[in-house]
Amino acid sequence: MKRREFLRYTTLGGLALSGSGLLVHALAGRHSQTLPAALLDNASIPAGQPLQPLPRIVNLSDQVGRFHSVLTPAAHAVPVSDGLEATLWLYNGKVAPLIEVREGDELDITLMNELDQDTTLHWHGVPVPQAQDGAPWDAVASGESRHYRYILHRGSAGLHWFHPHPHEGTARQVAHGLAGALLVRPRLDVLPVEVEEHLLVVSDLRLTTEGEVASHTAEDWMNGREGELLLVNGQRAPRLDVAPGTTLRLRLINACAGRYLRLRLEDHELTLIGTDGGLIERPQPLKELLITPGERADLLVRVSEKPERSFELASHPYTRGWMGAKPTHLDEIAPLLSIHTLNAGVSPAVKLPNPLSHIEPLGEPAVRRQVELAEVMPDHSDHSAVNDTPHAGHGGNDSHHGSHGRGHGGSHPSDEDRAVRPKVDFLINGRAFAMNDVLFEGQAGEVEEWDVFNNSHMDHPFHVHGTHFQVIATRDADSEWQDAPWLAWKDTVNLAPYQRLRLRMVFIEPGDWLFHCHIIEHEELGMMATIRIS
Ligand SMILES: [Cu+2]
Predict the structure, then answer these.
(1) Is there a shared CATH topology between the 213-341 domain and the 367-533 domain?
(2) How far is the centre of ligand 1, averaged over its atoms, from the C-alpha of 254 (Å)?
(3) Contact 454, 496 (CB under 8 A)
(4) Is the pLDDT at 130 greater than 80, yes or no?
(5) Who is most buried in 393, 410, 456, 482, counting CB within 10 A?
């Protein structure tokens, strides 16, 4: 392992030394088949260090309009505190690396798989040709490599990201740290140059006191895993110093597997200017913003004109229908970024263009579909039976645990991992994901309208591959349909329990496209399906 190199690259490594002792607590996973491991507490990582920019993946191409590089997912030892190294799986040894390109560029990435299992590169939020999507049926075996190559077409500007998407291996690979940011700059940036931009990748980790990524518990599988170590660009609650009155553009990715971010900035309003698929038409002032796993947000903040003050950007508690023992952090305010105003002159307010962009409504649909998200639970009057009760219910329930077509090698869960997975199915239209199963068939270029119904007691963030959608109407559990007040391009959107959303989208590229819950564990337990576009 090239230790010196990753020490230079990883921000987590750069923050290694701290006098704070290791606070530990026992794993509450009652369903775990093995002895509970002692876990590393968030407080054992130093906080308040200067915010680091995302480490860049260097462009190896000397051709204008082309980005070429090699991404090598592999195990790396990363120092986290005095005398403790964590073993993470990272692209090129970096926590949350950044690829920056421009609309119209060609992206050409060689994936060299140095993991001991199958992986893929999924380009979340980028409308790519299907063969470049990094779908589970296009797995790259351990020791193998492949090229991902596509053009970032006009309209693809925005903050996107990449992460693995192998069959039955995504949750484990994401839990080990594999994720990166893909920033697509527009040909012409409409925002004034005085705006100070920062990219923030929020992720979380659960480590044992030995520095190993802890195994999934049954609660992780049920709820989506939330790691105790909450990181922003690989750092714990970093600090950002700015002149008073600075207009900040904070572009966030929620790269967590299961953690929801309910963002608030002390004494400040947040102004939403963009979503997953780029800028919206008019700035939307907000008191708070919920960002689910997979979502991005583009926010402006005019920082206070008062010098030498501190304001905390934090994630506030959000109830998303937790099953089983509730970790204590769910009820706590989690600091993400501390913004400090310097003793300096006040930066004047900046004037934004109006509108920021134009979002054309997609118009009347050629086809309408119903999508229902559901969980089929065992009888949980005795909750401890989650592991033991034979699964009852619909047929074919083992399809996602058992055989799958489109044969390939393995990223299969370990026996230990398999033993702890609850026998609960997370379903779309009554079916758990199977590799050969095609739920819908559609035509490229046609407007599709999907009524997505969350028929369950938990929140689920709904993600569609290969395109962006517009949410045109919503219907909460006890109310009527309401039209969306404004349009945005989204690829991931939350559904609260028993909520319905009406989405419109157009698939441009033919092929098989996945749609799924972006709580990674729910996806892997079956809440995923395929539409075949011809
Ligand atoms: Cu879900």
Answers:
(1) yes
(2) 15
(3) yes
(4) yes
(5) 456
